[in-house]
Amino acid sequence: MRAEARRTLLALAVVCLLPAALSYLAYFFWKPSQTVNYGELIAPVVLPEARLARLLEAGELEREALGGRWTLVYVGPSACADACGKALYAMRQARVAQGKDRHRVERLWLVTDGGTPEEGLLRAEDRFTVAVADPDWLAVMPGAGQAAYLYLVDPRGYVMMRFPEHPDVGQMIGDLKRLLKFSGVG
Length: 186
Fold this sequence. Notes:
The chain is α/β, with parallel strands linked by helices. It is built from five helices and eight strands, in the order H-E-E-E-E-H-E-H-E-H-E-E-H. It has one domain: 3-Layer(aba) Sandwich (Glutaredoxin), CATH 3.40.30.10.
């Protein structure tokens, strides 16, 4: 009888400790092969305090002027080719698709060459800020010099995600929707 009691106690201990041991192993040693997000998560870097010259309105743009909102940032020249137009369209669609939460999303175009974008393009965009890119701002955005990326800046001013030059608008909308749903800021 004593051996049977010992086996029962051992079985009970295994049943209790096995889930904890498996969860420990899964947490520290198993990396999922797939993530839910479409945009590339980057190591969060805070935007510098440098002021940017606004192109459409008088004055300067400071990091605090982003108003504690999620901000989609396009970095590119003022001459807006086809890729630029598609990126601006994706930014507009991603903002509008948020429905009642669209007021939590801002859009910013950082012009890298100091020129002024064409008037017709700017009229088509609503609630849109255009500013001259500062080298300090570009330095914290990975790959900003090599290709035209769309970046996502969180309400605290951290660059935390980037999307490819030709983003899939539907997946970009999904990423933004998830972030707005689960974040308590912005």
